[in-house]
């Protein structure tokens, strides 16, 4: 019901406003993300646009479903409404998104909020007093404990656990930790929590995927992969190496329907080579077959929009012939044939098309 | 003997209302008293008033929308528990009691949260007059069935360590079995037993060994890696009263994706483990995913049934695991009978002498990416499967999906996740597996991605959700779709069925709404 009201509101709006409408973004978020979990666990995090993009990709891999437009709406909405400022910076803990729904994220609602400047000051303290034994990122080593995994650190807020611990006497006694001022301990606490939050999923990104051999990639493109049957380095793929970074190239050619498109996935299209929509031809027992862009299909019904823009809906019966044409079928089938070397070589080759 | 006395005592004191513990072992008819209906995890109902001949007369009897707060946005992933005509179900921090005949609210309870991951809650456990559920902020809460008033709560994990609660507790005699969730930081998983009267801890069993020299420790490089080795207990175990064993499916090792600092099989993560519910002592284990680096865990229901293998009657446990393998074991001793792929996988080099898959190192996550199937979502996931003794088939919501697994943290000591997977394409289906051969007897593909729990009945029906919001009844023998209703949202839990006053009901959740169907004529 609420959804219908919302749709009506959308229809009344000028089309150009749709992408910016927070309500549309909120609704897409609810539909796409809320299908599997509460939206509060999403909006509790403040992130950069790139981090939201990464997060959405990860969710797609975990089964999130939606159209390209819906994912874009979600991305635009989250980037606009839940940017890094909402939580004090990309390294700040989840659960503190500008007071929004702070309870609904991994970890405690009252968790430590990193002050970036203090964490920077704390790094100097850390480098002088701690780094030799506890390592560059506080993950420990032969000489000192892993501080990221330390329950004293996990229970700490602004030095209230590590302060008393250090005052009691540091086990190694190599540095008289009691000499740290309360300000230094607070700074150190920010630094340690920053390192802790850096191990969480939102803080991580793809590294270097450009490891293949461009020549072998070109050979595969023109040979076994049969990519050149449909694509051309001077046509649809011209300058793709300038338009997309290597991770995007990799994802685009492997999953051109993109967006985790399941079998019936529609409308998927990335920033790379344009892909054609799924089409369907429906042949009633009597009357002419109708072909058009697939709008919806399940076991029981099928709907399409024909070339003239007319919408057609059918109940699927034994005498209704339905033939779906997925222009990306060859890409899907390749997933069972690529080796990882093929994949890395193709990325290297496409990246040369600047 | 002692157990019998306890049961007799319990039966008398709960006779007027509450749950008669004898119900917990029986096939569910006028009750659905535990997460899986009965202890076996089969999710098979002997009811047949709703059957293939009359399924098209099934009627919508009631609808209940569960609104957790002003913003809405909840999802029911809980399987409702039915006791004495009242359905009890949860969302994170929330419990509802509704009339199973009418869908009208009887009471609701809201927990004031201190945080934690609110990704989902699987439901409640019931003992006598009391209800138990876990909260995201690490509490086991006991409510009075009658009015939903809190009786007590106990801490079952440390929120500062990013644990959280999501599992539906399992009640076995005078044990309330609880599990822990959360794989953001590298903490050890465990399972606990609590006194149903006061919540006191009876025992705790760690999924990962705590000291070098303990069983399983030779599958870890160091005590440090092992004690931070994960293995969360996300899912409600199953129980064999005759053998007095609970079957616990365990989660993935930590760090989740970047496994270089934990070489070895990483026992007893991603395994099925048989424990004695009175002592918490391990009886046997079988590892579904040695050295998992794909977040596949093995927290899929270990389903218990009696079967026949090579003409011999056997006590079996079967699991369709997230890594794409279907395992059949002898549940008396954990010995593997068969290991087969229920969806085609590309990450394994076959199975070892014990029946565990052998991971191909080349398909572990890589800096420049490795194309892997199944994807992180898995060949299946937490939604419950069903085993139907009439057809001898094990049914599971399955996906054949690809994604690329990356290492994000190339350091020598990655922590937390240290990587992830991205992208993907896949197909979604129901697989009906013949347990005797491990082979897929039939496949019913869905047009869109589906991930629903399943239910099968003596009415020769299999109930499932597709990816388009349809709740579907299939012919359990052939997979042919016989009936459907579009709920406007994908099925989000495991459907249940029960009979009250001669009417058979069918209850399923889609998003934040519970739908009650019934055969009213």
Question: What are the SSEs and their pairings?
Answer:
The complex is a heterodimer of chains A (354) and B (521).
Chain A: H1 2-11, H2 22-32, H3 40-43, H4 49-61, H5 68-81, E1 105-108, H6 116-129, H7 131-134, H8 151-155, H9 162-168, H10 182-198, H11 214-222, H12 240-243, H13 246-254, E2 279-283, E3 290-297, E4 301-306, E5 311-315, E6 321-325, H14 329-334, H15 340-351
Antiparallel strand pairs in A: 2-3, 2-6, 3-4, 4-5
Helix pairs in contact in A: 2-5, 4-5, 6-10, 11-15, 13-15
Chain B: H1 2-13, E1 44-45, E2 59-65, E3 81-83, E4 86-91, E5 94-99, E6 105-110, E7 115-116, E8 125-127, E9 130-134, E10 139-144, E11 150-155, E12 170-172, E13 175-179, E14 190-194, E15 201-206, H2 223-227, E16 238-240, E17 245-249, E18 271-275, E19 282-287, E20 303-309, E21 312-320, E22 325-330, E23 336-341, E24 348-351, E25 357-359, E26 370-372, E27 386-388, E28 393-407, E29 419-434, E30 439-446, E31 455-457, E32 461-465, E33 470-475, E34 481-486, E35 496-500, E36 503-510, E37 513-518
Parallel strand pairs in B: 1-31
Antiparallel strand pairs in B: 2-37, 3-4, 4-5, 5-6, 8-9, 9-10, 10-11, 12-13, 13-14, 14-15, 16-17, 17-18, 18-19, 20-21, 21-22, 22-23, 24-25, 26-28, 27-28, 28-29, 29-30, 31-32, 32-33, 33-34, 35-36, 36-37
């Amino acid at each position: 019901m609420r959804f219908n009201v919302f749709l009506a509101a959308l229809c009344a709006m000028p089309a150009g406003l749709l992408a910016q409408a927070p309500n549309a973004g909120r609704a897409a978020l609810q539909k796409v993300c809320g299908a599997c979990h509460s939206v509060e666990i999403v909006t509790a995090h403040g992130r950069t646009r790139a981090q939201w993009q990464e997060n959405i990709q990860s969710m797609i891999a975990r089964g999130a479903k939606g159209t390209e437009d819906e994912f874009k709406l979600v991305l635009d909405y989250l980037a606009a409404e839940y940017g890094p400022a909402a939580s004090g910076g990309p390294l700040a803990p989840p659960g503190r998104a500008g007071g929004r729904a702070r309870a609904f994220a991994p970890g405690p609602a009252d968790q430590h909020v990193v002050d970036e400047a203090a964490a920077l000051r704390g790094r100097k303290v850390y480098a002088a007093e701690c780094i030799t034994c506890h390592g560059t990122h506080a993950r420990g080593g032969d000489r000192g404990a892993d501080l990221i995994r330390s329950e004293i650190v996990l229970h700490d807020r602004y030095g209230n656990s590590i302060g008393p611990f250090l005052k009691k006497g540091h086990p190694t006694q190599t540095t008289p930790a009691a000499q740290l001022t309360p300000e230094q301990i607070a700074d150190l606490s920010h630094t340690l929590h920053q390192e802790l939050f850096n191990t969480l999923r939102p803080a991580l990104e793809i590294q270097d995927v450009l490891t293949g051999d461009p020549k072998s990639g070109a050979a595969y493109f023109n040979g076994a992969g049969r990519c050149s049957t449909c694509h051309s380095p001077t046509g649809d793929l011209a300058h793709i190496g300038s338009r997309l970074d290597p991770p995007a190239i990799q994802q685009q050619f492997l999953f051109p329907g993109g967006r985790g498109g399941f079998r019936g996935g529609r409308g998927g299209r990335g920033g790379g080579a344009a892909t054609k929509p799924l089409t369907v031809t429906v042949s009633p027992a009597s009357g002419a077959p109708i072909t058009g862009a697939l709008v919806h299909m399940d076991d029981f019904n099928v709907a399409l929009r024909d070339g003239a823009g007319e919408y057609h809906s059918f109940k699927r019966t034994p005498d209704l012939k339905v033939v779906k044409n997925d222009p990306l079928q060859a890409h899907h089938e390749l997933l069972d044939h690529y080796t990882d070397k093929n994949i890395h070589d193709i990325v290297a080759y496409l990246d040369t098309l600047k | 003997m002692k157990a019998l006395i306890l049961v007799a005592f319990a039966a008398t004191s709960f006779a007027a209302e509450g749950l008669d513990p004898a119900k917990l072992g029986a096939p569910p008819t006028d009750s659905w008293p535990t997460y899986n209906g009965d202890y076996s995890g089969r999710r098979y109902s002997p009811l047949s008033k709703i059957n293939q001949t009359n399924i098209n007369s099934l009627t919508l009897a009631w609808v209940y929308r569960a609104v957790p707060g002003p913003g809405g946005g909840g999802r029911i992933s809980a399987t409702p528990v039915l006791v004495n005509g009242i359905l009890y179900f949860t969302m994170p921090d929330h419990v509802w009691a509704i009339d199973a005949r009418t869908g009208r609210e009887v009471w609701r309870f809201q927990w004031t949260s201190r945080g934690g991951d609110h990704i989902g809650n699987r439901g409640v456990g019931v003992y006598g007059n009391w209800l138990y559920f876990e909260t995201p902020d690490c509490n086991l809460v006991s409510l009075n069935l009658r009015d939903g008033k809190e009786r007590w709560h106990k801490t079952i994990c440390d929120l500062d360590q990013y644990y959280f609660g999501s599992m539906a507790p399992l009640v076995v005699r005078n044990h309330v079995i609880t599990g822990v969730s959360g794989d953001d930081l590298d903490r050890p998983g465990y399972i606990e037993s609590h006194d149903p009267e006061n919540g006191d801890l009876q025992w705790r069993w760690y999924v990962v060994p705590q000291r070098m020299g303990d069983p399983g420790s030779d599958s870890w490089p160091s005590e440090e890696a092992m004690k931070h080795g994960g293995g969360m207990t996300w899912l409600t175990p199953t129980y064999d009263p005759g053998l007095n064993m609970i079957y616990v499916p365990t989660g993935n090792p930590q760090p989740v994706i970047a496994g270089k600092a934990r070489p070895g099989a990483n026992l007893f993560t991603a395994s099925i483990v048989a424990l004695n519910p009175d002592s918490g002592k391990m009886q046997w284990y079988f590892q579904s995913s040695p050295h998992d680096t794909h977040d596949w865990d093995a927290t899929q229901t270990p389903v218990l049934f009696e079967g026949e293998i090579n003409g011999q009657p056997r006590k079996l446990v079967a699991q369709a695991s997230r890594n794409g393998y279907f395992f059949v074991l002898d549940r008396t001793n954990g010995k593997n009978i068969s290991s087969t792929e229920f969806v085609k996988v590309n990450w394994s080099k076959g199975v070892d002498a014990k029946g565990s898959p052998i991971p191909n190192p080349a398909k572990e996550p890589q800096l420049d990416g490795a194309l892997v199937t199944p994807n992180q979502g898995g060949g299946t996931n937490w939604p419950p499967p069903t085993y139907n003794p009439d057809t001898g088939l094990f049914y599971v919501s399955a996906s054949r999906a690809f994604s690329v697994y990356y290492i994000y943290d190339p350091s020598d000591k990655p922590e937390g996740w240290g990587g992830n997977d991205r992208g993907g394409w896949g197909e979604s289906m129901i697989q009906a597996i013949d347990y005797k051969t491990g082979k897929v007897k039939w496949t019913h593909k869905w047009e869109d991605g589906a991930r629903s729990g399943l239910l099968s009945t003596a009415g020769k029906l299999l109930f499932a959700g597709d990816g388009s919001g349809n709740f579907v009844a299939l012919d359990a023998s052939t997979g042919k779709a016989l009936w459907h209703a579009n709920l406007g949202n994908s099925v989000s839990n495991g459907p249940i069925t029960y009979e009250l006053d001669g009417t058979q009901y069918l209850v399923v959740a889609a998003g934040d709404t519970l739908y009650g169907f019934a055969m009213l004529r």
